[in-house]
Amino acid sequence: MADTKDTVVEGVEALTLNGKAEAEPVETGTDAQAQEGGAAAGAAVEDVVDPWNVASSNDTGVDYDKLIKRFGSSKIDDELIARFEKITGKPAHHLIRRGMFFSHRDLHTILTLKEQGKPFYLYTGRGPSSGSLHVGHLIPFTLTKWLQETFDVPLVIQLTDDEKTLWKDLKVEDAIKLARENAKDIVAMGFDVKKTFIFNNLEFMGKCPAMYQNIIRIQKCVTFNQVKGIFGFGDSDIIGKIGFPAAQAAPAISSTFPFLFGNKKVHCLIPCAIDQDPYFRMTRDVAPRLGFPKCALIHSTFFPALQGAKTKMSASDQNSAVFLTDTPKQIKNKINKYAFSGGRTTVEEHRQLGGVPEIDVSYQLLKFFLQDDAKLEEVRVAYRKGEMLTGEIKKLAVETLTPIVEQHQAARKLITEEVLDKYFELRPLKFAS
Question: Which residue stretches belong to region Disordered (predicted)?
Answer without folding.
Answer: 19-40
